[in-house]
């Protein structure tokens, strides 16, 4: 078995990265490209032993990194960002081969954002204030102390972007980390370890353990030496992680799934509204924030439906490395089956297929056609459960009140999008929506200074801006007599 594999011309080490060294496990798992089923390599499959070794390495490296002046930590983070920029093309290609998302998005959107994650938190760290105040002549001095080793557990749909969204603030705050990437997209985390080491990050400050969630992930979540767990992934896994963390009372940040609505009012710019709806097929629908429930005002529903159906059918599906491709494959056969199961059951339950409705038989493999369903009941599975594929449902409403009621009738609360030409309506409606992020006449516009997270079952806590430092730090108030 080779520990160095070549992926799209880039050499990737398939072992863990623990204490500044590559460490192999006897067991491995196979990493397969969703584009064509090609085997990319055998990856070290960590468990309790490797997780324990990584937490020990992170604990050993913690005092020195925590004591490193902020400016120096910020400088290392910026050097990591420069390293990402330098290897942007390689990272984009490896990520596309590994998770099947569009190469052009990786090149132009995702990987630049990875670098931005590091630069943003470097800058934010330097500006992090001390909130000092006086109590009867005594000074209260609030400090942001690093918490210790953090376990960061991440999904496959935007692997490096979501990993660095956690790694960057955790490291900036002076913590050490153990990153456990998803087993369906393990490769760019390994490249990140090399980039960080080249940038001067000391050994043990960033560790990467590869493996399955139920093995390496569970071992990290239940490890008593871990001071923070930040998890992005599904609700069922979050429950396992919360249960594993409970005996140690390890603080958790959970960024979970969604079933977000797009509300389209009769006064909306229809071209824009159709664009916003079509955007929900991005990344083959594997986007936590995707507005998969289209709620459309009855007077414009027929025209909106006609235009969106055309758009869905015109989407070019194929190899995500081709510039012309608009929608690539799903990540894994299990996901394809899961998505198709949702659609079949919805149809059996009375849903009408306006576009797509099954795998792309011309392409074969993991390609699922962009699907639009209507005549769906509000309490049906297809409206209530996260599909995590290119499947949108379309429902109509008659009144603003009804639109808000439908939008909020979900156990999720990650995001919502409103299309309307009436500012007053936008204010009324957004005030009533339960969601961590609400977009008005736009979608996916993200500023890292903003809080990010979900309400209800979509998450616990917020990251972004100083909220990330709130989570990754132990805030301390020191009261000094005059
Ligand atoms: P998942 O929950 O199956 O896996 C996520 C990670 O958890 C993987 O690294 C996995 O190995 C690990 N894991 C699995 N079982 C574990 C256990 N028992 N203990 C510890 N770790 C374990 O999620 P997924 O399928 O990889 O990702 C898709 C989900 O992620 C969707 O629900 C999506 O909405 C959500 N997501 C949310 C956000 C957000 O920011 N809110 C962003 C992206 C994805």
Keywords:
Aldehyde Dehydrogenase, Chain A, domain 2; single chain; binds nicotinamide-adenine-dinucleotide; 482 residues; 22 strands; Aldehyde Dehydrogenase, Chain A, domain 1; alpha/beta
In short:
This protein is α/β, with parallel strands linked by helices and 482 residues long. The radius of gyration is 23 Å and the shape is globular.
Q: Can you walk through the features of this model?
A:
Residues 27-477 form the Aldehyde dehydrogenase domain. Belongs to the aldehyde dehydrogenase family. The active site is at residue 255. This protein is α/β, with parallel strands linked by helices. The chain folds into 2 domains: 4-257 and 458-477, Aldehyde Dehydrogenase, Chain A, domain 1; 261-440, Aldehyde Dehydrogenase, Chain A, domain 2 (3-Layer(aba) Sandwich). Helices cover 40% and strands 22% of the residues. It contains 15 helices and 22 strands. It has helices at residues 48-67, 70-86, 88-99, 103-127, 159-172, 187-198, 213-221, 235-245, 270-278, 298-314, 333-348, 381-384, 400-408, 423-432, 465-472, and strands at 4-7, 10-13, 16-18, 21-23, 28-32, 39-44, 133-135, 138-146, 149-153, 176-180, 206-208, 228-232, 252-255, 260-264, 291-297, 352-355, 371-374, 391-397, 415-419, 437-440, 459-460, 473-480. The strands form 6 sheets. A 7-stranded mixed beta sheet has the order 16-17-18-15-14-19-20, sandwiched between helices. Strand 5 and strand 6 form a beta hairpin. The longest helix has 25 residues, at 103-127. The chain is globular, with a radius of gyration of 23 Å. Nicotinamide-adenine-dinucleotide (NAD) is lined by residues 153-157, 162, 180, 182-183, 212-214, 217-218, 221, 232-234, 237, 240-241, 255-258, 288, 386, 388, 414, 454, 459.
């Amino acid at each position: 078995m080779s520990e160095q594999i070549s992926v799209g011309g880039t050499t990737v080490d398939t072992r863990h990265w623990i204490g500044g060294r590559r460490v192999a496990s006897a067991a491995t798992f196979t990493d397969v490209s969703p584009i064509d089923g090609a085997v990319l390599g055998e990856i070290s499959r960590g468990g309790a032993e490797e997780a324990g070794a990584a937490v020990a390495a992170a604990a050993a490296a913690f005092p020195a990194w925590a004591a490193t002046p902020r400016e120096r930590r910020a400088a290392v983070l910026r050097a990591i960002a420069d390293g990402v920029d330098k290897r942007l093309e390689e990272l984009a290609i490896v990520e596309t081969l590994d998770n099947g998302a569009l190469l052009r998005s990786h090149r132009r959107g995702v990987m630049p954002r990875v670098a931005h994650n590091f630069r943003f938190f470097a800058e934010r760290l330097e500006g992090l204030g001390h909130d000092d105040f006086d109590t009867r002549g005594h000074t209260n001095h609030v400090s942001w102390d690093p918490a210790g080793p953090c376990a960061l557990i991440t999904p496959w749909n935007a692997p490096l972007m979501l990993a660095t969204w956690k790694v960057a603030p955790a490291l900036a705050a002076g913590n050490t980390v153990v990153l456990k990437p998803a087993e369906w997209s393990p490769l760019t985390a390994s490249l990140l370890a090399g980039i960080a080491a080249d940038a001067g990050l000391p050994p043990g400050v960033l560790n990467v353990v590869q493996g399955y969630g139920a093995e390496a992930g569970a071992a990290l979540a239940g490890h008593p030496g871990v001071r923070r767990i930040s998890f992005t992934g599904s609700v069922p896994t979050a429950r396992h992680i919360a249960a594993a963390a409970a005996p140690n009372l390890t603080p958790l940040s959970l960024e979970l799934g969604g079933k977000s609505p797009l509300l389209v009012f009769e006064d909306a710019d229809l071209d824009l509204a159709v664009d916003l709806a079509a955007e929900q097929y991005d990344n083959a629908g594997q986007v936590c924030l995707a507005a998969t429930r289209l709620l459309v005002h009855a007077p414009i529903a027929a025209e909106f439906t006609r235009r969106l159906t055309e758009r869905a059918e015109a989407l070019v599906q194929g190899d995500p490395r081709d510039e012309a491709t608009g929608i690539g494959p799903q990540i894994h056969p299990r996901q394809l089956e899961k998505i198709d199961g949702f659609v079949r059951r919805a149809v059996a339950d009375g849903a009408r297929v306006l576009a797509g409705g099954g795998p792309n038989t011309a392409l074969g493999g993991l390609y699922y056609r962009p699907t639009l369903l209507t005549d769906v009941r509000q309490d049906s599975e297809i409206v209530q459960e996260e599909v995590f594929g290119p499947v949108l449902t379309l429902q109509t409403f008659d009144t603003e009140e009804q639109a808000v009621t439908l939008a909020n009738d979900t156990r999720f609360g990650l995001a919502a999008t409103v299309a309307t030409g009436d500012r007053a309506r936008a204010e009324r409606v957004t005030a009533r929506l339960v969601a961590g992020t609400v977009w008005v006449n736009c979608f996916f516009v993200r500023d890292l200074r903003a809080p990010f997270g979900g309400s209800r079952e979509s998450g616990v806590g917020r990251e972004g801006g100083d909220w990330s430092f709130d989570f990754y730090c132990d805030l301390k108030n020191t009261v000094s007599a005059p």
